[in-house]
Amino acid sequence: MRFAISLLVYVCLASLVGTVVPQGRTPNAYIDQFGPFWFEVLNKFSIWHIYNNWWFLLTMAFLVASTTLCLARNAPKMLKEANSFREQIRTSSLRSFHHRIELETPRDVSKASGSVQAWLKKQGYGLRVRNEGEAVLIAAKKGSGNRLGYIFAHAAIVIICVGGLLDSELPVRLQIWLFGKTPIVENMLIADVPEQGRLSLRNPSYRANVLVPEGSARDTAVVNVDDGALVQPLPFSLKLKKFIVDYYSTGMPSRFASEVEVTDPDTGKTFDATIEVNEPLHFKGVTVYQSSFDDGGSEVELVGHSLTGEKIVELELKARVGQSSDIKFAGPGKEVKADITKLRPINVEDLTAGEPATPKALSEHVASVTGSAAGKKNANLRNVGPSIEYRLTDASGQTTLFHNYMLPVELDGMSVFLAGVQEPGQSGFRYLRIPADDHGSVKEFMLLRAALADPAMRKQAAANLVQSYRGTTGEQKALQTSAERALDTFATGGLGAISEFLERNVPKAEQQRAADIIARLLSSSVAELYRLTRVRAGLAAIGDSPEEQTKAENWSRLAVAALSDLAFYPAPVLFTLKSFDHVQASVFQVSRTPGKLIVYIGCLLLVLGVFTMFYVRDRRIWVWLRPTEHAGGTSVLAAMTSQKRTLDFNREFEQLQLALGRLNPPTSTPPTAVH
Description:
It is built from 15 helices and 26 strands. The chain is an alpha+beta fold. It has four domains: about 1-85 and about 145-165 and about 595-615; about 85-145 and about 620-675, Sirohaem synthase, central domain (Double Stranded RNA Binding Domain), CATH 3.30.160.110; about 310-360 and about 375-435 and about 575-580, no CATH class; about 450-565, no CATH class. A hairpin with a 4-residue loop joins strand 17 (about 385-395) and strand 18. It is elongated and about 150 Å long. It is a multi-pass membrane protein. It comes from Zwartia hollandica.
């Protein structure tokens, strides 16, 4: 019993951890929450999937075995005890009871026995009468069902654990261990999955996921097992006719709904249904939940902007989300492979921190629908439009994830494009701010980037800068040389290269002053380069009004920061989203959970057991009636006991005392009670 209680406490503590720590998220989400060190420590115990861990399932199995053994050993004894009246008790034993009554009555034994039995029956006691010669023993009991409370409570623990094990991964893992099922770890079509990677249609218990794009139908789901997956056939097919998303005024989703057509292959009949969060579909023993939503293979059109070379190179890429494309640029090492991983038509962001937070997981969207996040209002949230997420893999196999927004957003009073980068081993995105031009595009910035890479344009910009400087010929020549050197150094490595140049060539005491001078010189040089770029591109010249001059200066300042950051941009190309044809897809969780009914039964037994143990009191009364030495008189010896001697028990004993006292005439001596 101690072992079972210890296991139960252990299971409760593990369940507490599984409740506090969100289950089934991506490793990056846990790294963000706990940090790399604690992620590695906690990952060894697999607390991200605590309810399906081998050690948790083993503990549950031991708990079931231990409690079942305890129940099997003690339940028959309890039932026998509950049915027994203990009529073998002797008078010597009754005198040792704490609550006892002794008296004599002039009534004879038969009349006294009849009066006592009538009173006990009126109080709801069950009776058993035993005659021993002229003496009579009346054994009474009430509340024997108290013993059933212990049996119900212990049986409930076993039943709930069995139901939980039945609805866990244990049935699937048993098929892997005993019947040769092998999770598939390679990418392949479901039609190509071999038999050992498929579960039976008669699989008694499973939880699987199925993604259904709009206009498509699915009759199989995927059961995730560790790093692989097994295919689970469904007893029906689901066709997604339409996916519906409604939004709050903040842009957060307020309702998910999937209009589906369900087809029964056994009868060929179809019917329509609507599946929403908290409103699942139940059919043929399988429950279909609206889990989340995803992209169903949207077609996107991207524009790739080259970030190297002196020429403007743009290429258009038409692809489908989830599709790979090989992209080649001129020159060695400029070949990359692009995988379009995600399209987000709506992005609700709080940009008060200067950049978006980590893109929201689907669980957060589901939380907003179920109400746990719907009431949280943030006046800073706004929809910043669509975004595209893609992955680039270079010739060496290095992979980097990118997250770029389609439309410019306003930050610090300036319109900028946000281009996010997540390098391997990092969590979250770092965003590059690219200033938008008057047409809301990155065209002018890309022209400036190409001009900065052109030595002739840098030299011309430095020469034009000197023309506006009034000084001697020597001073103008020195200024031009300094401007050319600043642009050349900046073009090779951004502001970092200029900082390294100052550290190598300028004494430490003068570095700050030199940095201020070069910063102003670089800003003016880039501004002049920007003017040359606009002229060469046939764009209108910047006006002379203070507003236009200030706007141009701010644009140039942002451009300098963006050009400097490009030195660390881990790709030779930047993709912007030109257009897209969005295709929605619903992610359903399908489950067959026969253990659910078992758990409900166990919970009912647990409630009955706890109620019975706490509110049903076992009370027993024995009354020995013997003839006295005086003719016709009766000697009465009674005792009362209970497992819980409460105030109610004391009151009942007093009632028993009064009832036995009424056996005497009013003038007789009152009964003697000991308690």
